[in-house]
Amino acid sequence: MNRVYRQEEIGKSIVHSCYKVHKTLGPGLLEKVYEACVAYELNKLGLSVQRQVAIPIVYDSLQFDEGLRLDLLVEGMIVCELKAQEHIHSVWEAQIISHLKLTGLSLGFLINFNVPLIKNGICRFIN
User: DSSP label at 55?
Assistant: First the structure.
């Protein structure tokens, strides 16, 4: 199976898992709750999920490890940034794009669980 097709299949699994978690729990909980539940759902599907992954940042000849944490890294190829906020901030889009650039990955999701309908809280980004 080629990488792009595999990414698409994993992306569908991520969206499906978010729908399932949101339908069961609803909005209004802490981000960490959604993070744990989405990771659990993806693991049930047989996908590898890492939580709070530290990514080193390199600037010129300076490297530091405390600069970036990914909420979820799925199968080592898709970044998921989870939010549970009432208001959407445009900086979140810049954040996920920066995450993709810094990791060299091409697909990411920004998911805000604090919405009445989760379809309005899922944004997909391609680098």
Answer: E
